[in-house]
Every structure is written in structure tokens, then in C-alpha cells.
């Protein structure tokens, strides 16, 4: 096998894998994008950090660069605010696609340390910031109602959800 046909085979294999991933994650809707850029101009993250660009991510998925997206740091900058999705004239579920990509990246072990740490805290306490009696005393002083210190329902829900991500 010469090096040219070897490269061709590797490229074909990568393209097939990208195609499979796109189908498995049900991301085919990105094909109807006509590059109006409404998503990018609506995105608050792009506004403060132009390195993050929802349209660029969709194009990468469309052009078979899905693995690059799954291995990236920038994917995790999406705050799931849904501004892009609500305004897309083609009704492409952009924010949902970001979530699917993040879930897949998580399954592949590509979630940032901070995200994994937050997940561990929620699994233990049911909240990202555990509350205790001290917090409730401060709330009482501020005239706020007491909050339950345990959040077992959320904890149970979160545990079952993260199991399904494994
Ligand atoms: S708003 Fe929708 S159609 Fe316009 S560029 Fe973004 S994804 Fe494409
Ligand atoms: S959901 Fe994500 S990509 Fe869409 S506008 Fe919000 S931060 Fe940007």
C-alpha cells in the first residue's frame, strides 16, 4: 500500500466515524443551516470571547470535524442560555446540540476538571453549594425563609442521570 492510498483510507475511516457520530447524536438538522449568523450574533459568550462561535461549531460538525469539537475546551464555554436556538430562522436546536456534544464529550472523559468537580459535589450534596444551619441563620437575619439543608431528590435524580451518561 503506497502512502497516498494509506492516507486516503485513514481519511475515509475518519469521515465514516464522523458520519456515524453525527447520526448517533441526531445532529443531521445542522444541514439546513444557511449561514445567516443569527446564532453567533445572539450568543453572549461570543460577545465576550470571539474564540467561541456556535456557527463555527455547527460547521465543524457538518464537515466531519466532530471529534475535534468533542476534544475541545471551547465547547464547554456554552452556557446553555438558548438565545441562539430561540432565534435561529431554521429552527435548528443549536443549544440542544451543544448539550448533546457536551454529554458525548463527558462520556469520552473530556469534561473539564471544574465540571467533573461540580458533578461530584451535586452527587454528594444535591447542590453545587451545600447549605447548612449557618446559612439559614444568615438568611433569617436577612429576612429570608429557611431552606432545606438536604436535597436528596435532586441528588437521586442527578445520580440516575449521570449513570445514563456512562
Ligand atoms: S441561526 Fe440557524 S441558520 Fe442561521 S447561521 Fe445559525 S444555525 Fe445557521
Ligand atoms: S446556548 Fe450556548 S451557543 Fe447558544 S447562545 Fe447560549 S451560550 Fe451561545
Contiguous helical run count: 10
Mean pLDDT, to the nearest integer, reads: 86
Are there runs of 5+ residues with pLDDT below 50, and where? none
CATH topology name of the largest domain, in short, is Fumarate Reductase Iron-sulfur Protein, Chain B, domain 2
CATH superfamily of the largest domain: Alpha-helical ferredoxin
Radius of gyration: 21 Å
**What characterizes the major β-sheet?**
none
How much helicity do the residues have? Answer: 55-70%
Identify the overall geometry. elongated
Question: Quick recap of the structure?
Answer:
By secondary structure, the chain is mostly helical. It folds into two domains: 80 residues, Alpha-helical ferredoxin (Fumarate Reductase Iron-sulfur Protein, Chain B, domain 2); 53 residues, no CATH class.
Structural notes for this entry:
By secondary structure, the protein is mainly α. The protein has two domains: 28-107, Orthogonal Bundle (Fumarate Reductase Iron-sulfur Protein, Chain B, domain 2); 113-165, no CATH class. The chain is 61% helix and 0% strand. The chain has helices at residues 3-24, 38-42, 44-48, 54-62, 66-70, 83-87, 94-107, 113-125, 133-141, 152-165. Helix 8 (113-125) crosses helix 10 (152-165). The longest helix has 22 residues, at 3-24. It starts with a helix and ends with a helix. The structure holds iron/sulfur cluster (2 copies). Residues 33-39, 55, 58, 88-90, 92, 94 line the site of one iron/sulfur cluster (SF4).
Amino acid at each position: 500500500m503506497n502512502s497516498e492510498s494509506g492516507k486516503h483510507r485513514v481519511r475515509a475511516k475518519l469521515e465514516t466515524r464522523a458520519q456515524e457520530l453525527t447520526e448517533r447524536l441526531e445532529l443531521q438538522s445542522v444541514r439546513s443551516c444557511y449561514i445567516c449568523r443569527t446564532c453567533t450574533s445572539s450568543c453572549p459568550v461570543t460577545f465576550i470571547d470571539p474564540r467561541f462561535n456556535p456557527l463555527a461549531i455547527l460547521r465543524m460538525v457538518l464537515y466531519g470535524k466532530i471529534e475535534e469539537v468533542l476534544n475541545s475546551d471551547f465547547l464547554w464555554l456554552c452556557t446553555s442560555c438558548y438565545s441562539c436556538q430561540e432565534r435561529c430562522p431554521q429552527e435548528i436546536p443549536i443549544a440542544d446540540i451543544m448539550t448533546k456534544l457536551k454529554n458525548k464529550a463527558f462520556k469520552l472523559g473530556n469534561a473539564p476538571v471544574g465540571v467533573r468537580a461540580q458533578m461530584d459535589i451535586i452527587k454528594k450534596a444535591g447542590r453545587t453549594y451545600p447549605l447548612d444551619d449557618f446559612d439559614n441563620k444568615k438568611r433569617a437575619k436577612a429576612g429570608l425563609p429557611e431552606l432545606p439543608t438536604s436535597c436528596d431528590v435532586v441528588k437521586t435524580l442527578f445520580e440516575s442521570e449521570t449513570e445514563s451518561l456512562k
